[in-house]
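User: Hey, my collaborator sent me this sequence without any context and asked if I could get a structure. I don't really work with proteins. Can you help?
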Amino acid sequence: QVELSESGGGWVQAGGSLRLSCAALGRTFSSYVLAWFRQAPGKERELVAQITAGSSTSYADSVKGRFTISRDNARYTVYLQMNSLKPEDTAVYYCAASDLRMLTLRGVYDYWGQGTQVTVSP
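Assistant: No problem. I've predicted the 3D structure and written it out in structure-token form, which is a compact way to encode the shape of the chain:
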């Protein structure tokens, strides 16, 4: 199995930037689909960004042009660079991982981190 641990969250003013990191303990990290989710108070968890084993990326419309997901397989880490932050971005951010086969079969990610708080003030 895989253990994920997020870091880099914090408090920033609108327009600022923040980079989240998610370190993975696993033996097949390079083959995983990786993603960042977020959950704001009173709202459901939503997919923010995703990156495949081949480094293809996709983003929620609300963050396109502002957020960038990347991965460093040598360091077993996935990142989320967040620029031009808005108060609406305030949420707990989670990283997730799954091999493509299981993601396709189950429709959900296999492994999740504990989350890191991002707060953006006006």
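In plain terms: Residues 30 and 74 are 8 Å apart (CA to CA). You can pass these tokens on to your collaborator as they are.
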